[in-house]
């Protein structure tokens, strides 16, 4: 339950990304700068935080253990996640991007089969492929139904181009983010904390962001001051606070597919935060009765995930008591 609450807090800070990315695009900013500036602004903040905790040296040692894996999964988890999101903001409103992004709660559940867990047998510990937690998957799909209902009233006014370019890249991001996050948890295996892992992924992905910013400079020149300031806000809110909170929560439940799916499903709350934020910041109209019905389904789905997580904890506690 605690990790789900942390996930919901993360979703509120993540919502800033969708609102301000759309705001920057409407104002004429380039997605090249929106994406790269976020990570440029994250780097010094995270570095100072980890330096203050005297954890920089262990991080370097961890990166040098498996540099190619760090490079690969940082690219997947950060670059293939955020570059498509900012690109999509040029073609669709924030609510559309945030709503489509919620496919990540199903993607994360489906990705379970790509990972292994250690199981004790009479012949000793063996690694077996994890199974898809079907109950968690059903609840996640239920939440997605609510998200689809939430989107219907506004989606009818979109052109084919907005749907294709506003949704397509987000589908890539929806799978890339949980895959990169989970693979990095597997690579690190608890040897470093969440702040170190986020900093390490940011550092390792820097060459990619430099290339993206160089392309942006060639195409559109330097970013306007307003885009720089809004990107810094996104970097602090979404890149540092939200990412750290979510990574911390998922790391706590990384060995329990059902609980992990429940924490990742908390990101569905972003849709609600984005709608409220766009109403306040971008003056979009209030949601219709159908949209409110969709919100109700999302909340019910979150409650179901919370109940399931509670039941899993109880089962684990009872098992531990019997074993002792």
TrEMBL record:
It holds the Pfam family EmrE. The keyword Protease does not apply. The chain crosses the membrane at residues 38-56, 68-89, 95-116, 132-152, 158-177, 198-218, 230-249, 261-284. InterPro entries: EmrE. The keyword Transmembrane helix applies. Keywords: Membrane, Transmembrane, Transmembrane helix. This is Multidrug resistance efflux transporter family protein. It comes from Halobacillus shinanisalinarum.
């Amino acid at each position: 339950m605690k990790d789900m609450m942390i996930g919901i807090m993360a979703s509120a800070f993540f919502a800033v990304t969708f609102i301000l990315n759309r705001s920057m695009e409407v104002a004429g900013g380039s997605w090249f700068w929106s994406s790269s500036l976020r990570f440029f602004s994250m780097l010094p903040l995270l570095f100072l935080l980890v330096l203050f905790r005297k954890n920089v040296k262990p991080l370097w040692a961890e990166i040098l253990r498996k540099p190619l894996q760090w490079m690969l999964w940082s690219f997947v988890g950060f670059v293939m996640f955020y570059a498509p999101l900012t690109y999509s903001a040029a073609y669709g409103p924030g609510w559309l991007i945030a709503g489509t992004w919620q496919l990540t709660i199903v993607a994360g559940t489906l990705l379970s089969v790509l990972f292994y867990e250690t199981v004790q047998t009479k012949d000793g510990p063996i690694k077996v492929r994890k199974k898809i937690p079907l109950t968690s998957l059903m609840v996640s799909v239920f939440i997605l139904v609510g998200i689809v209902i939430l989107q219907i009233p506004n989606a009818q006014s979109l052109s084919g181009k907005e749907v294709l370019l506003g949704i397509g890249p987000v589908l890539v991001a929806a799978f890339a983010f949980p895959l990169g996050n989970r693979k990095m948890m597997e690579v690190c295996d608890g040897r470093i904390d969440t702040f170190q892992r986020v900093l390490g992924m940011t550092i390792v992905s820097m060459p990619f962001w430099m290339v993206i910013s160089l392309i942006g400079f060639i195409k559109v020149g330097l970013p306007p001051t307003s885009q720089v300031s809004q990107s810094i806000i996104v970097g602090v809110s979404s890149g540092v606070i939200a990412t750290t909170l979510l990574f911390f929560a998922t790391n706590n439940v990384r060995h329990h597919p059902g609980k992990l799916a429940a924490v990742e499903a908390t990101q569905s709350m972003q849709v609600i935060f984005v709608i409220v934020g766009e109403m306040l910041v971008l003056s979009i109209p209030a949601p219709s009765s159908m949209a409110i019905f969709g919100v109700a389904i999302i909340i019910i789905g979150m409650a179901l995930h919370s109940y399931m997580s509670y039941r899993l904890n109880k089962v684990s506690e009872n098992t531990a008591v019997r074993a002792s």
